[in-house]
Write a structure and sequence with these properties.
With about 80 residues, this protein is α+β, with helices and mostly antiparallel strands. The chain contains 3 helices and 5 strands; from the N terminus they run βαβαβαββ. A 3-stranded antiparallel sheet has the order 2-5-4. A two-stranded parallel sheet has the order 1-3. Helix 1 crosses helix 2 and helix 1 crosses helix 3. The longest helix is centred in the first third of the chain and has 15 residues. The two termini are about 25 Å apart.
Amino acid sequence: MQIEQLDRDLGGRRLLEVAVAVLEREVEPGQAVHYREWYALLCAAGFRAKGQDPLANFLAQISRSEKVEPVGRRTGQYRLQAA
């Protein structure tokens, strides 16, 4: 299924999968992006995180991804791991 065909309000594993897919489309591996900017990319693609605090839900999910890594300590920046 293409990400354009999904429900636009995402949560859990589906939020993580779509967020990573959007990031893979928008930035190069190794390029750092702040999680707020990443969430803006997700929203620009027509999606949003479910929950009372969508941004906090988004941050909780992306921090679990095996395809991205944090840049530094407590910077709020992430990058795709090189393949």
